[in-house]
Automatic annotation (TrEMBL), chain A:
Protein's UniProt name: ABC transporter permease
Transmembrane segments: 7-29, 67-92, 104-127, 139-159, 180-205, 238-259
A single GO cellular-component term on record: plasma membrane
Family: Belongs to the binding-protein-dependent transport system permease family.
Automatic annotation (TrEMBL), chain B:
Keywords: Signal
Leader sequence residues: 1-24
Protein's name according to its UniProt entry: Sugar-binding protein
The keyword Transcription is annotated on this UniProt entry: no
Amino acid sequence: MTKRRPNYLAGVGVTLWLFVVALPLYVMLGAGVQSRADYGASGPLGFPDHFTLSNYVDSFSNGFGRYFVNTLIVTASVVAIVVLLVPPLAFAIVRNRGRSTSGVFRLFLLGLAIPAQAVIVPMFYVISEAGLYDNLIGVILPTAAFCMPVCVLILTGTMRDITDDLFEAMAIDGADARRVFFKLVVPLSKSGLSTVVVFAALQAWNGFLFPLVLTQSEETKVITLGLYNFQTQYGVDIPGLLAAVVLSTVPVLLVYLFARRALVQGLMGVGGK
Amino acid sequence: MKTRARFHRAVAGGAALVLGLGLAACGGGGSSSGDSDEFHVLVYGDAGNRVEKRLVATFNKTSEVKAVLDTVPGADYQQKLQTVINTPQAPDVFFNWGGGSIQPFVEADLLLPLDDMMKKEPGLKSNFLPSVFETAQVDGKSYGIPMRGTQPVLLFNNKKVLADAGVEAPRTWDELLAAVKTLKGKDVTPIALGGGDKWTTMMWFEYLYDRVAGPELFKKALAGEKDVWDGADSRKALDMLRELIDAGAFGSNYDSVKFTDGSSPALLASGKAAFELMGSWAYSTQREADPDFARNDLGYSNFPAVEGGKGDAANLVGNTNNFYSVRKSTEHADAIAEFLKLMYSDEFVEEQLAIGNLPTTTNTDKFLDAADNPEYLKYQYDLVDKAPAFQLSWDQAYPPKNMTPIYVAVQQFFNGQLDPDGFIKAMQALTTV
Amino acid sequence: MASPSKDGRPGIGWALPAVVFFALFAVVPLVLVAVLSFTTWSGLGSPEFAGFDNWVTLFHDPVMIKSLWLSVLLTALGVVVQTPLSILLGVWAAGPQRNRAVLSAVFFVPLLLSATAVSVLWRALLEPNFGIPSQATWLFGDGNLLGDRTGAIAVLVLVSTWQFTPLHALIYQGAARAIPAVLYQAAEIDGAGRVRQFFHITLPQLRNAIITSVILMVVGGLTTFDTVLILTQGGPGTDTTITAYYMYQKAFKGFEFGAGAAIALLLVVVATAVSLVVVRVSGYDKMAGTKEGM
């Protein structure tokens, strides 16, 4: 490639955007290490003069550890369900020649348009009829179902990139669908798969509505509900809340740091070519 | 590339493992119904839960039937309650605000009238201030035992700002208008208002209607007499409010400000504003956010009198109390009666006072001196004790479905989208059952 | 699973477990919503059949009609603001600059935060007396952003842009990387400048990415409600009561579950129709077919 002069306009634009992105993050980190009094006195933009970790300590003494474990269980289970169910489905959508699979694809496209809050009332009844109310399984199942559409979209996108001659080569070798799936499709869909994992994990980790309606006891509380606890009837403890938010984001950030490249490539698949 | 491959294997393996673990771990959870030796208590989840946890523990020490405390966080309490109350997962005992918040349940025949229980255990009545039961009565029957405390709305002020401007806490409406004028001249927002919360704005209507028309107007409106909204008193109250708004009393950006995120209290504490009309909890809010201000400069007074108005200047509005109601189908009415008797125990009163709540039991009086803010608590206790009328907040007095329409109407009247006719029409459109 | 077929193609059985699971926990509740929309129900007692009452009321309800306009307006503004921004960011991120990876990583963070966190953060930032507006009165005046119709809508657009631009930028980044370098080399030989290259090569090559991104924005825009719930509660007045929030309000604040269900169903139908139209027009669902070519 020929050497190009630097694009100053882009530089300015990106710097501006960096500012827009970073300012709220600065507030989040800054407020979390201030006492409530300091925050009240200096406002969100103030620099934290008296550094304190008490907000973080409080989070843990308020039962955050338990919420953490619950959230971890929900997240891992949702990811597992999605990883078990979606790849075979996407494989069928991409490679099955029948008409019905395009109907299946449309079904999941339709699923994209169902807001979770739209079905929450019947969901409550389905779950409590199944005896799963106030049980983490009752949160896991609908959460998994509702992140499937996007996962299907991502994974079909990735699988469509596998070229035909690869499939043909395997067919000539007499490979059956199972063999094609495990020897060809899965290995070549890795980037899409890890996107799906991160996406599903993110959905489950930040999920709020299903836990809110489908659980009630302390034993089944997840982090987002714990965060919501900071919002009491008569006020929000903003530094406390933001400290808890930072805490709750750490695992997601870790996953993101480790899976970033794969995630980025998987999401790129969504764009199609 | 190598790290990536390892990551994938780790993810897949880990996921399978945790799914197994997760399912095993969840299996033991079990649902709340079916256990015959316990009853469930559902409470609004906030800082006050500390006391409820203690009381449940105290109760469980001696009782065969155990109480189990469940909490629902934040603002979704009412919707959660409505969703579960008619299912097997319903709590046996639950927190509420009385008034409209339990009316639909009474109509659906889900609640246990507590009059018989009170007859059997007279202490459940005699140990509370008599006026507090009224809010939890529907069709002449009692459905609630007071818990937590009472929260009247007061006009808080920043003593320093008032002193600097040479203004005193206003005793009459005209004094308030004069104070607004003086304060504006000093470049202070006269009144802090967290209009983004909407119920904050509504408090101004509640008090003005009470002072101008007396408590009867709202009682009639609630009973279905919609004409009263269009009466001369109603229009006078609206005109007075308009005058206050147009005088710039609240500044111009109040709808972007909230009480609940600490902004309007900060306005008062920092001296950018002189007054704030707020529930008695504002004291503990200020104490947590700005202890120095709360100790030295936070003043308070009752809402000013309106000359020629029909309402007594000692009337109050606010949260009369929180209540425990009992579900009709519970199998543990006797154990629950024992549990409710704790709501006037010494332990209860001391614990509530410690977190800034003011219980309405007859023994509250003797613990006030020991509290760390006796002056403020006594002031409040006296107000509640002597108030001829104590109006429950409008949004809680009406059945829950009216909450949004009320909020929209008060906000639109303040920002000028509704004129008095429009506001009256909006209030007449509320459903009173 | 499926019976092994000679050509290595999967049978429909491969799709079955996922379809059954999805049907059970997403489609069945949706059907129940449809049934509920023809009843009146407060959550207590049993739903009572009400025919088309909810639907008739709905289309005579001024707040409902206003909410539809607001939804369309917010969605359109979202598309108009986010699309150019995310295309530019995505194309930039696809380039060879050194600092690109680090910055892209920072840009992605908003997507990781929960709606509660995002809304609380922005509310604090935009607080008129203590936040940014108080530092820049020349720009914000009295800072009455959330108390003003235009201001509140602008804030909602801004916040969703802040949170979701990273996702769309990523989609564009991927698509931009896939554009063959020869195209640019040829253009450079022809003497085309950066701007011309962008409009004549980059944009046309991003067609599919634009379609995907716009579908996601439209569906997301029509169905968002968390930010409205926490930032504005539909206010001032009803000025940001978008349809998805109105549904929530009807069902969970007013306990009119029948009416809420009707709005929910309407939303699902509209969002589905829009995405199907876009898919059909763009031929997105035929992509597999064209690629396989047999």
